[in-house]
Design a protein that fits this description.
By secondary structure, the chain is mostly beta strands. It folds into 2 domains: 36 residues, N-terminal domain of TfIIb (Single Sheet), CATH 2.20.25.10; 57 residues, SH3 Domains (SH3 type barrels), CATH 2.30.30. Helix content is 3%, strand content 29%. The chain contains 1 helix and 11 strands, in the order βββαββββββββ. The strands form 4 sheets. A 3-stranded antiparallel β-sheet has the order 1-2-3, with no helix packed on it. Strand 2 and strand 3 form a beta hairpin. The longest helix has 4 residues. The protein is elongated, with a radius of gyration of 19 Å. The relative contact order is 0.17. About 4% of the residues have low confidence. Pfam families: YjdM, Zn_Ribbon_YjdM. This is Alkylphosphonate utilization protein. InterPro entries: YjdM (IPR004624), YjdM_C (IPR013988), YjdM_N (IPR013987). Belongs to the YjdM family. It comes from Romboutsia maritimum.
């Protein structure tokens, strides 16, 4: 039998694998198996050039971005100040920010470079 870790929520020893997730049958908590050893690597967000981003950084948009619900777009070279990183984003948008003329936005780190 495999040596699976105990549940981080209730410390139950009866955890089991369900695909890529570990599941606790006692408290129904689910967590990813790969997050056990790579928690530091998963929390690092890098820009398009590979520079590590952190909260409060300024970034520059590297390509024109269409904005849903608007006829205008965010132009290449637009500088965005004081970003906030989102680590648990399901849609890939891992930067929250405010852009002048557009308001609050979410961006992907792959379309920005550190300023």
């Amino acid at each position: 039998m495999e040596n699976l870790p105990n549940c981080p929520k209730c410390n139950s020893e009866y955890t089991y694998e369900d695909g890529s997730l570990l599941v606790c049958p006692e408290c129904s908590h689910e967590w990813a198996l790969e997050s056990e050893g790579n928690s530091e690597d998963a929390s690092i967000i890098k820009d398009a050039n590979g520079n590590i981003l952190s909260d409060g950084d300024s970034v520059t948009v590297i390509k024109d971005l269409k904005v849903k619900g608007s006829s205008s777009s965010i132009k290449i070279g637009t500088k965005v100040k004081n970003i906030r990183l989102v680590h648990d984003s399901s849609d890939g948008h891992d930067i929250e920010c405010k852009i002048d003329g557009f308001g609050a936005m979410k961006l992907k780190s792959s379309v920005v470079k550190k300023a």
